[in-house]
Every structure is written in C-alpha cells, then in structure tokens.
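Q: Got a minute? One more chain.
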Amino acid sequence: MTSTATNKRARTPRRGVSRVRVALAAAALAGLGCATLAAAPATAAGEALTVQYRQSSAGSDQAEPWFKAVNTGSTSVSLAQVKIRYYFKADSGASYTYACSWAVKGCANITGTFGTLANPTSTADRYLEIGFTAGAGSLAPGADTGDMQLRFYRSNWQPLNQADDYSFGSGQTSYANWSKVTATVGGTQVWGTAPAGNGPTDPTDPTDPTDPPAAGPRLFDDFNYTSYSDPSIGAHGWNVRSNSGGPGVPGASWPAENVTFAKEGTNSIMNLETSTAGTAESTKQTEVLTKATKFRNGTYAARVRFADAPKSGPDGDHLVSTFFTINDLKAPMADDYAEYDFEYLPNGGWGEPSNILYTTSWETYRPDPWEAVNQHSESRISYAGWHDLVLTIDNSSIVYYIDGQEFGRHDSRYLPERPMSINFNQWLIDLAGQTSTTPRAYDQKVDWVLHVKDQVLSPAQVTAEIAAYRAAGKTFEDTVPAS
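A: Always. Here it is, folded:
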C-alpha cells in the first residue's frame, strides 16, 4: 500500500481549482519535484533489533499489522534511526491510507509511508514503512517499544485482499518474531527478509550516485538578486506574482514587494513572506514562478527552509509552503493536466490537526462537482528548517526525495503529458486556524533551484551539481529550450 491516495483528496476539497484558475488567468502557479529510488537495506549479521508481529484483522475491511520492536543488542538504539517495512500485494488500481490506532510510544511519534518495490513479486509490489520521530526516544538493551497498533485500508474503503500479501500471517494472533518484515537501523538492515529480488544485495539502480550526470539542458538559479524589481529576475524567466486570485484566502493580495532577497552567509536567499491580521483585506500571500511552461521529464530540485512558527505575532494559521510544477487545466477532467507538489502545512489544515508534509502527483480534476485523480505521500512530523527537495520524473515513475531519502514513489498513471512551469508559493488555506487580529508574518526561504531536462539525478548528484556551480561562481544558467 502506498501513502499515496488516489482520487478524492478529502483534505483539499477545492485547492486544485483555485490554483488552476490562477494559472489560466495569469499563467501564475505551480510546482516541483524530486528523484531516485534507494535500494533495499542490506541484511546484517548479528541482529541488534528484532520485530515482533501479530495481525489484529484477517478480514477484508482493513489490514491491521501490529508490531513491537525489541532491542536485542548491547547498546541503546535511537528509534529515530529505525525503519520497519511490511510488504504486500496491492489490489488492482488501489491506493491506501495509513493510520495508528494506539501505541505505547504515542501515535504522534510514529510515521507511516508507502512505497513501491523496485522488483515486484507475486506477493509484494508495495510496502508500508514505519518510522519514528525524535519524540519516540531510544530503546535500552532488552527494551521494546510496546504495542504499535497500526492499520491501513483502501482510500475509498473498498474491500482489500490480505491473503496474497508477503508479510501477512493469518495465524499470527499473538506477538512473535516475524522474519517477513524487515527493520533497518541507520539505513542498515538488521532484521528480516525482503521479498525476492528486493534484498540488500539485489541491485535496483545501476547508476553510481557519485557519477557526474551527462551534460544536458538545465535551469539553475542561485537567486542572487537585489529585490523583486531587479530587471534580472524577469530576464532570467521569473515572474514575481502581483495579480489577485487563488489559491488561499478569497480577497487576499499577492504583493510583489513581499518577495525579498538577502545574503545569509555567502549564499543569496529568496524569501517569501506571507502575513495577515485575521482578515481577508490584511492577508498578503506570495508566489514566484517561471514565465515559461517548458519543463517536463527530468529532475527538479530546490533547497527550501520551512518554518513551524511565525517570525512575529501569534502562531496557528493554516499556512501552506510549497515547491511545485504545474500546467493549466484546459477542461474539467482533462487528461493532459499535470501537477507535482511539495506542500508543508506547519499548523495543519484540510482536516489535519498539526504539521504534515505532502507530496502529490496529479492526473486531473473537476472543479464542480469536485472530483480529483491524484496520488500522494505524507508524513506527520515537523519539517522546520532547511531541506533539499528532489523530484524525478521519467517514463515510468515519479519519485520524491527529502534530504536524500525517498519520500514517495508514484506510478506511471500520473506522468505529465504536457510541459509545466516551476513554482514556489506560500499562502493561507483559510483564517480559521488563528482568529486573532494581531498582525503576524511567516517566512519561506529558498536557496537555489535546479532542473535537468530528461535526466534522473540522484540526490547525491544534485548536491554535486550545486557544489560545482558555486565553485565556479556561476549563479544562473538556463539552457532548457522553449517547449
């Protein structure tokens, strides 16, 4: 199952509509992406961590894999370094949703994301990966996590079949060691056996991530500008938005002057400030996007700083900070629409109570009545601070990475059919998260952006590309041809 939800996205009932209206009206909007899949972790001798499993539901309503992780080693293990994978065979055309019913460590400290196996088998093509936040603490030698009562289900609540799932044990009604799930500590596999062809010694990507990519068309910008009115911004193909419209609070403005540039150390940083005093008239949102819609397959990357709290005033607004790519919706449910998002909500929204990060790949939607076709991955932890965001799109898949780790992998149904623009924006979903009339302001910072046309770069290759540009003192390049 994947933390990717297809079709109706309940948390965002009308978000795509307002975006596309802006794109249609002002050619202003959209997204980003990220790239490359990591190989399954290697099996290590002398396990320091074992996983106990029991199934709490053998029925067709939802899968309920319950786990305990046990430290069988002689040193303490930080749970933030632990990942557990449960492997299953997805039902045809299905997307899945993860949930935590109860856990000794607290559900808020346990994350669940879905991924796709590089080498599918007859009993597994997906996995649910369980992780932990820093709040879960550590396991002393001999200690265990206690119950983790987890579940997942088809996002449309249609029946699911567990009988053909690799990790499912119909007779496991009480906790016992279970080798059909795997566990890694710090990226090294220490427990279990992955489905055939997906183990630590099975190659999934012949590319050496340290190899430099071949030369090819690319866009790089270090955002080395003086202000929003710097003529170089337009000359380099960027539009600093000033027109009204969605997304966000109806009646909000998009003042170009709220996009600023400054040095932080030796780097030039672009800052998008969004502010409000609790009314539509006082709400100011920000967006910067490419004028051209000429980007399609390849690698998209940016270094972005998200914030959990305002730089001034009371906290709590339903803020969305983004990096994405997008094109226009030519007609309701048009199948050549495309959009690929990184969206961070530090205070929740769209039905979420607290911070959550989404990556979403869109096929299409209809504004009225609302219907959406997309796939998303999510993580309900804080992403405050600087992060390297990478998205890769080739002819078979869409892969999102955060700080070098795969975050989500979406399938070929969501590949783009037309070129897109590259966008950054920050806006408020509504004014319900914080009702105070005290002014407050939020910052989203961007260090650099990179797109390499028709090439899938690993996160390590992206890092090498940026280092090469900076070593050469080059702050801008655009050799991507017009579409």
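A: Confidence is low (pLDDT under 50) at residues 1-46, 204-212.
Q: Perfect, thanks.
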